[in-house]
């Protein structure tokens, strides 16, 4: 995978994370939590993949943590 492709994926993942937390901030209690958790978990998977390709251990740990939190959030939202 090229560096340009990785940068594009990272930008997508970061944009998704910003969008999900913006939606949570704006919508408050009326936020569709299941959809938000799924969306946030997908961006964590994308960012983990990019961190693995770049061999960035700190971001691997951070985003694997977000994947786990997302899976718990999805489970609790169902």
Keywords:
87% helix; 78 residues; mainly alpha
Q: Which percent bin holds the helix content?
A: over 70%
Q: State Rg.
A: 13 Å
User: Which descriptor suits the 3D outline?
Assistant: globular
User: In DSSP terms, counting alpha (H) and pi (I) runs of 4 or more, how many helices?
Assistant: 3
The span between the termini is 36 Å
Topology record:
Blueprint: H1 3-27, H2 33-54, H3 57-77
Helix pairs in contact: 1-2, 2-3
Written description of the protein model:
- This protein is mainly alpha-helical and 78 residues long.
- The protein has one domain (3-77).
- Helix content is 87%, strand content 0%.
- The chain contains three helices and no strands.
- Helix 1 (3-27) runs antiparallel to helix 2 (33-54) and helix 2 (33-54) runs antiparallel to helix 3 (57-77).
- It is globular.
- The mean pLDDT is 92.
Give a brief outline of the structure.
The chain contains three helices and no strands. With 78 residues, the protein is mainly α.
């Amino acid at each position: 995978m090229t560096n340009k492709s990785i940068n594009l994926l990272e930008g997508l993942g970061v944009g998704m994370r910003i969008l999900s937390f913006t939606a949570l901030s704006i919508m408050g209690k009326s936020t569709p939590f299941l959809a938000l958790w799924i969306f946030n978990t997908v961006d964590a998977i994308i960012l983990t993949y990019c961190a693995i390709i770049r061999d960035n251990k700190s971001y691997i740990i951070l985003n694997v943590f977000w994947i786990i939190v997302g899976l718990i959030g999805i489970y609790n939202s169902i």
